[in-house]
Amino acid sequence: MTDLVKEISCTLQRDPQPGGDAAQFEDLDFHSFRLQPADGPAAETNTEATVEYCIKNPRWIFSLQTHKYLGIQ
Q1: I want to staple 37 with a disulfide (CB 3.0 to 4.6 A). Which of 24, 29, 50, 53 is the partner?
Q2: Whole-prediction pTM value?
């Protein structure tokens, strides 16, 4: 299946739910690993956690769901 998928994009929360750890995907054959902070009430904390994770795990690229900042649903 990874022959068809070249990019993975995940959402990170400061306290991830079971099965929500981005590390579970690192052994898969993707060319691009993108990590986005989860929005909602903890958006600021999740953004900090996402930046920290990307710094510690340089394979992951910090990404944003730009449409949310533009108010597009």
Answers
A1: 50
A2: 0.77
30 in a structural domain: yes
Mean pLDDT throughout 19-25?
80
Q: What are phi and psi of 59, to 5 degrees?
A: -65, -25
Give a yes or no: residue 1 inside a domain: no
pLDDT at residue 60 in the model: 94
> Which residues contact residue 6 at a Cβ distance below 8 angstroms, ignoring those fewer than 6 apart?
30, 31, 32
Sheet of 7-12, strands arranged across: 7-12, 32-37, 60-62
Which residue has 């691009």 as its token pair? 32
Which tokens hold the place of 11? 């959402």
